[in-house]
Specification:
By secondary structure, the protein is α/β, with parallel strands linked by helices. A hairpin with a 2-residue loop joins β3 (337-348) and β4. α10 (234-247) crosses α11 (252-277) and α17 (455-471) packs across α18. The chain is built from 22 helices and 12 strands. The longest helix has 27 residues, at 198-224. It has helices spanning 5-20, 23-48, 56-73, 78-100, 107-125, 151-173, 176-184, 188-193, 198-224, 234-247, 252-277, 284-298, 377-384, 407-413, 430-437, 446-450, 455-471, 487-500, 517-532, 544-548, 568-572, 575-583; strands spanning 142-143, 146-147, 337-348, 351-362, 366-370, 392-397, 400-401, 415-417, 505-509, 536-540, 553-558, 561-566. The strands form 3 sheets. Strands 8-9-10-5-11-12 form a 6-stranded mixed sheet, with helices on both faces. The protein has a 4-stranded antiparallel sheet with strand order 4-3-6-7, with helices on one face. The protein has a two-stranded antiparallel ribbon with strand order 1-2. The radius of gyration is 28 Å and the shape is elongated. It binds adenosine-5'-diphosphate and magnesium ion.
């Protein structure tokens, strides 16, 4: 009952507001709803996925003009025009996204500025669209013969759309795709290593944000019954960014808070400031700028945390119930050739980080890869997992060449890894991080997530994540933010995440670093158990005591090359290895 309290109250408020409030406030709420739609898109795009867009107002404008032109000039019904508006929005978003999102860096953000300016001048200069005076007499929307031609009537249309979008976005973030979206901002390489198509996902988020803006534009045109370019200038785009940041850019409900605060404030300042300055002008943007700087100085998370107790609760925090286990992979019988490297080479400028590396690994063994710092071990991991592409040489996995395969293809074949530098989404809970590891074992996409058609699969993914966390001894920490655990435990979370992918070959980059003695023993015990179950493990580790008692065989690297290989006892007495270690580190 308490959990649904805030959401229930909000819905009741939205339902009765137009029945009891004066017309002025109903109109204000309409503007808030319209702004919330656009801001919500920005929250997902900028706040969660980390892609800054200055061009959302241009999507609003394109959709508003599409529907105005089709209904005013061509007499189309608003509902048909809705389909056309969203189609136009989607086509433009896909085109912009396809051109810019595959490039790294800030190309998209910059192109959204250009796109925003271009749309403003385009709309303002086309005689057919009324140039800067716009288009008048846009018809009202009719629902089942009822024409929504007052603010009070439009209200329900706007708020049904807004509430649906808010709930859809909330559901999306709490899903298989949502976890991947939340990894986009800082953990793209990690997400790819668990099979997430980050480029496609970025385009999906960009498209979703554009569609929300387009929906807002369509509603705007039929609520105001009038469109002109001024509402869709670059200023408006910055207002939306302010709303997202002030509300709390990474939270769904922050969109509502930011849109409400700014819309009300703007209305108020529009009367107040020109009086104060004795002349007219858009002074509110100065106030917003100062407000935002002040807010960011105090808290990076915007206003949402201040409203935390009023906001609907996040994802459930009970231990997931048992669910039918996910399908598992067939493992090759022990002793079969698993991984073969032949003459693998990688150069970084003048540095030959990996040179002529050749070795074989068999299924069911733990192979240790040791060597001084900078020997090239992590680089070799990156070559095997497709993060980097080798300059020369062959890598075969289960007999198939993988040296040109992408990270995702390699993950799909059953190679998973942990990272030397912990690569968790620190704001996401431990169990969500581990569930991300099982990404390829689920199927459900963004649309079924929004509609919550994914609940059964989600239960199975979470049950699997909980099982793996129990297995590594972190069953008590399921719902803590991953970033709040000590570093050693975060490494263990990485192991659970890799195990959740059900790998054939597990690559571990210094898993025992930062662990206490007892924890190291527990880890060694776990790795032995995994081996007994048929898992193959390639292990990079510095702690010799840990390595020697655990691995079946060792490969020693130094300056990018293979120095020696053999059984632990042979390596311990190998003069070249002793020399490298004594002359090197420790
Ligand atoms: P190890 O994991 O054995 O400590 P690394 O594989 O991390 O060693 O690094 C091997 C060498 O390659 C080091 O000299 C390191 O500085 C260099 N190196 C690693 N990654 C890069 C990179 N992306 N660009 C340039 N140099 C790199
Ligand atoms: Mg390393």
């Amino acid at each position: 009952m308490r959990k649904f309290g805030p959401l229930g109250l909000f819905l009741v408020f939205i339902a009765v507001a137009p029945l009891v409030l004066p017309a002025f406030y109903v109109t204000l709420l309409n503007y808030i709803g319209l702004a919330t739609l656009v801001t919500l898109g920005l929250v997902l795009l900028t706040g969660v996925a980390g892609i800054v867009s200055f061009g959302q107002q241009a999507f609003v404008g394109m959709a508003a003009y599409t529907t105005a032109a089709l209904t005013v000039l061509m007499g189309l019904s608003p509902w048909l025009a809705l389909i056309a508006s969203l189609a136009v929005t989607a086509a433009i978003a896909l085109l912009l996204g396809a051109i810019t999102l595959r490039l790294s860096g800030h190309y998209l953000s910059i192109s959204t500025i250009a796109w925003g300016i271009a749309v403003y001048y385009l709309l303002g200069n086309l005689p057919m669209l009324g140039q800067y005076s716009g288009l008048d007499n846009v018809p009202a929307v009719a629902v089942a013969g009822w024409t929504l031609d007052t603010g009070r009537e439009s209200y329900y249309l706007i708020w049904v759309a807004t509430v649906a979008a808010l709930l859809g976005a909330r559901n999306l973030l709490d899903s298989r795709s949502g976890r991947a979206i939340r990894a986009l901002r800082f953990r793209g390489v990690m997400a790819e290593s668990f099979g997430v198509d980050t480029a496609a996902l970025k385009i999906t988020v960009f498209l979703y944000a554009a569609l929300l803006a387009g929906l807002s534009g369509w509603l705007y045109a039929h609520f105001l019954r009038f469109v002109s370019p001024h509402a869709f200038g670059v200023n408006a785009g910055i207002d939306y960014l302010f709303m997202a940041v002030i509300g709390g850019a990474s939270q769904v409900w922050g969109a509502l808070i930011g849109a409400s605060v700014l819309t009300v404030l703007k209305e108020w300042l529009k009367d107040l400031l020109p009086d104060m300055f004795q002349r007219s002008g858009n002074y509110e943007i100065v106030v917003f700028g100062v407000l935002m700087m002040f807010l960011l100085h105090r808290t990076r998370d915007g206003l949402a945390p201040a409203f935390a107790r009023l906001l609907p609760a996040g994802p459930a925090r009970q231990r997931p119930p048992d669910a039918p286990p996910l399908a598992t992979r067939a493992r090759p019988p022990a002793g079969q050739p698993l991984l073969e490297l032949r003459g693998v080479q990688k150069r970084f400028g003048g540095l030959l980080a990996v040179n002529a590396m050749s070795f074989d690994m068999h299924s069911g063994e733990i192979l240790g890869l040791i060597g001084p710092n900078g020997a090239g071990k992590s680089t070799l991991f990156n070559l095997i997992t497709g993060v980097l592409v080798a300059d020369a040489g062959q890598i075969r996995f289960l007999g198939q060449p993988i040296e040109r395969a992408t990270q995702r293809e390699i993950a799909r074949r059953g190679i998973c890894r942990t990272f030397q530098h912990v690569n968790l989404v620190s704001t996401m809970s431990v169990i969500e991080n581990v569930a991300l590891g099982a990404h390829l074992r689920g199927r459900r996409g963004t649309v079924s997530a929004m509609l919550q058609l994914d609940r059964q699969e989600e239960q199975r993914l979470f049950a699997e994540a909980a099982r793996q966390l129990d297995r590594v001894g972190l069953g008590e920490h399921l719902f803590e933010p991953a970033g709040s655990l000590p570093l050693g435990q975060q490494r263990i979370v990485e192991i659970a995440r890799a195990l959740a992918a059900d790998p054939v070959l597990l690559l571990m980059d210094e898993p025992a670093a930062g662990l206490r003695y007892g924890e190291k023993r527990a880890l060694a015990e776990l790795l032995r158990k995994l081996r007994a179950e048929g898992m193959s493990i390639l292990l990079v580790e510095h702690d010799m005591e840990f390595v020697m008692g655990l691995v079946d065989r060792l490969v020693v690297m130094d300056f990018g090359e293979k120095l020696a290989q053999g059984l632990p006892a042979e390596i311990q007495n190998n003069p070249a290895v002793l020399e490298a270690y004594l002359g090197g580190i420790e």
